[in-house]
Amino acid sequence: MLDKILGSVVSGVLGGEAGKQSQVMAMINALLSSQGGIQGLLAKFQQSGLDDILQSWLGTGENKSISPTQVEDVFGKQELQQAAQQAGVKDEAEASDLLSQFLPQLVDKLSPNGAVDQSAVNDLLSKGVQSVLKNFLK
Protein backbone atom coordinates (compact mmCIF):
# COMPACT_ATOMS: atom_id res chain seq x y z
CA MET A 1 0.00 0.00 0.00
CA LEU A 2 2.72 2.47 0.94
CA ASP A 3 4.57 1.68 -2.28
CA LYS A 4 1.56 2.88 -4.24
CA ILE A 5 1.10 6.01 -2.09
CA LEU A 6 4.69 7.16 -2.43
CA GLY A 7 4.84 6.18 -6.06
CA SER A 8 1.75 8.16 -6.93
CA VAL A 9 2.89 11.22 -4.98
CA VAL A 10 6.37 11.27 -6.47
CA SER A 11 5.14 10.51 -9.96
CA GLY A 12 2.41 13.14 -9.69
CA VAL A 13 4.81 15.85 -8.61
CA LEU A 14 7.77 14.99 -10.80
CA GLY A 15 6.25 13.14 -13.72
CA GLY A 16 8.54 10.68 -15.45
CA GLU A 17 11.82 12.16 -14.25
CA ALA A 18 13.26 9.06 -12.55
CA GLY A 19 16.47 10.88 -11.58
CA LYS A 20 14.58 13.63 -9.77
CA GLN A 21 12.29 11.07 -8.16
CA SER A 22 15.29 9.26 -6.76
CA GLN A 23 16.77 12.53 -5.47
CA VAL A 24 13.56 13.59 -3.75
CA MET A 25 13.15 10.20 -2.14
CA ALA A 26 16.76 10.29 -0.92
CA MET A 27 16.19 13.75 0.58
CA ILE A 28 13.03 12.62 2.34
CA ASN A 29 14.90 9.59 3.67
CA ALA A 30 17.73 11.82 4.94
CA LEU A 31 15.30 14.21 6.63
CA LEU A 32 13.30 11.39 8.17
CA SER A 33 16.49 9.91 9.57
CA SER A 34 17.81 13.19 10.94
CA GLN A 35 14.47 14.25 12.45
CA GLY A 36 13.53 10.97 14.12
CA GLY A 37 10.91 9.90 11.60
CA ILE A 38 7.73 11.47 10.32
CA GLN A 39 6.60 12.59 13.78
CA GLY A 40 9.88 14.47 14.27
CA LEU A 41 9.57 16.00 10.84
CA LEU A 42 6.03 17.16 11.60
CA ALA A 43 7.15 18.56 14.97
CA LYS A 44 9.67 20.77 13.12
CA PHE A 45 6.79 22.38 11.23
CA GLN A 46 4.89 23.02 14.46
CA GLN A 47 7.98 24.47 16.16
CA SER A 48 8.48 26.77 13.18
CA GLY A 49 5.01 28.26 13.56
CA LEU A 50 3.61 26.52 10.50
CA ASP A 51 1.01 24.47 12.31
CA ASP A 52 -1.78 25.90 10.13
CA ILE A 53 -0.05 24.64 6.98
CA LEU A 54 0.67 21.29 8.60
CA GLN A 55 -2.95 20.91 9.73
CA SER A 56 -4.14 21.51 6.16
CA TRP A 57 -1.95 18.61 5.00
CA LEU A 58 -3.23 16.36 7.78
CA GLY A 59 -6.85 17.37 7.33
CA THR A 60 -9.22 16.25 4.63
CA GLY A 61 -9.56 19.63 2.92
CA GLU A 62 -7.30 21.40 0.46
CA ASN A 63 -3.57 21.36 1.20
CA LYS A 64 -2.00 24.75 1.75
CA SER A 65 1.19 25.31 -0.18
CA ILE A 66 4.56 25.91 1.41
CA SER A 67 7.25 28.04 -0.15
CA PRO A 68 10.86 26.96 -0.57
CA THR A 69 11.78 29.76 1.88
CA GLN A 70 9.43 28.29 4.50
CA VAL A 71 10.97 24.84 3.97
CA GLU A 72 14.39 26.40 4.56
CA ASP A 73 13.10 28.11 7.70
CA VAL A 74 11.79 24.78 9.03
CA PHE A 75 14.90 22.69 8.43
CA GLY A 76 17.65 25.29 8.26
CA LYS A 77 20.20 25.80 5.55
CA GLN A 78 22.72 23.33 6.98
CA GLU A 79 20.18 20.49 7.30
CA LEU A 80 19.01 21.08 3.72
CA GLN A 81 22.60 21.18 2.47
CA GLN A 82 23.28 17.82 4.09
CA ALA A 83 20.10 16.28 2.68
CA ALA A 84 20.86 17.72 -0.76
CA GLN A 85 24.40 16.38 -0.66
CA GLN A 86 23.23 12.90 0.38
CA ALA A 87 20.67 12.90 -2.42
CA GLY A 88 22.91 14.32 -5.14
CA VAL A 89 20.83 17.49 -5.46
CA LYS A 90 22.64 20.62 -6.66
CA ASP A 91 22.19 22.74 -3.52
CA GLU A 92 19.86 23.58 -0.65
CA ALA A 93 17.84 25.95 -2.86
CA GLU A 94 16.91 23.13 -5.23
CA ALA A 95 16.31 20.85 -2.23
CA SER A 96 13.89 23.31 -0.60
CA ASP A 97 12.12 23.82 -3.94
CA LEU A 98 11.62 20.09 -4.47
CA LEU A 99 10.53 19.53 -0.87
CA SER A 100 8.00 22.38 -1.07
CA GLN A 101 6.35 20.51 -3.94
CA PHE A 102 6.58 17.04 -2.42
CA LEU A 103 5.97 17.29 1.34
CA PRO A 104 2.35 18.53 1.29
CA GLN A 105 1.23 15.59 -0.81
CA LEU A 106 3.30 13.04 1.10
CA VAL A 107 1.91 14.10 4.48
CA ASP A 108 -1.59 14.26 3.00
CA LYS A 109 -1.34 10.71 1.63
CA LEU A 110 0.08 9.41 4.93
CA SER A 111 -2.86 10.92 6.83
CA PRO A 112 -6.02 9.88 4.95
CA ASN A 113 -8.27 10.31 7.99
CA GLY A 114 -6.74 13.47 9.42
CA ALA A 115 -4.02 11.69 11.41
CA VAL A 116 -0.79 10.07 10.33
CA ASP A 117 -1.32 6.40 9.51
CA GLN A 118 1.18 4.86 11.93
CA SER A 119 1.29 1.53 10.09
CA ALA A 120 2.29 3.33 6.90
CA VAL A 121 4.90 5.36 8.79
CA ASN A 122 6.34 2.25 10.40
CA ASP A 123 6.45 0.60 7.00
CA LEU A 124 8.14 3.64 5.51
CA LEU A 125 10.78 3.77 8.20
CA SER A 126 11.43 0.04 8.20
CA LYS A 127 11.84 -0.27 4.43
CA GLY A 128 13.48 3.06 3.84
CA VAL A 129 12.27 5.46 1.21
CA GLN A 130 14.86 4.33 -1.33
CA SER A 131 13.68 0.73 -1.36
CA VAL A 132 10.10 1.91 -1.80
CA LEU A 133 11.13 3.93 -4.84
CA LYS A 134 13.04 0.98 -6.32
CA ASN A 135 9.93 -1.20 -5.99
CA PHE A 136 7.85 1.50 -7.68
CA LEU A 137 10.19 1.83 -10.68
CA LYS A 138 10.31 -1.92 -11.43
Describe the overall structure.
By secondary structure, the chain is mainly alpha-helical. It is 77% helix and 0% strand. The protein is built from nine helices and no strands. It has helices spanning 2-14, 18-35, 38-47, 51-58, 68-75, 77-87, 92-110, 118-127, 129-137. The chain is globular and about 35 Å long. Mean pLDDT is 75; it is low at 124-138.
Radius of gyration in whole Å, from Cα? 14 Å
Specify the structural class.
mainly alpha
**How many DSSP-defined strands?**
0
Average pLDDT level: 75
Q: Biggest β-sheet: count, sense, barrel?
A: none
Q: Strand fraction band?
A: under 5%
Provide a concise account of the structure shown.
By secondary structure, the chain is mostly helical. Helices cover 77% and strands 0% of the residues. It has helices at residues 2-14, 18-35, 38-47, 51-58, 68-75, 77-87, 92-110, 118-127, 129-137.
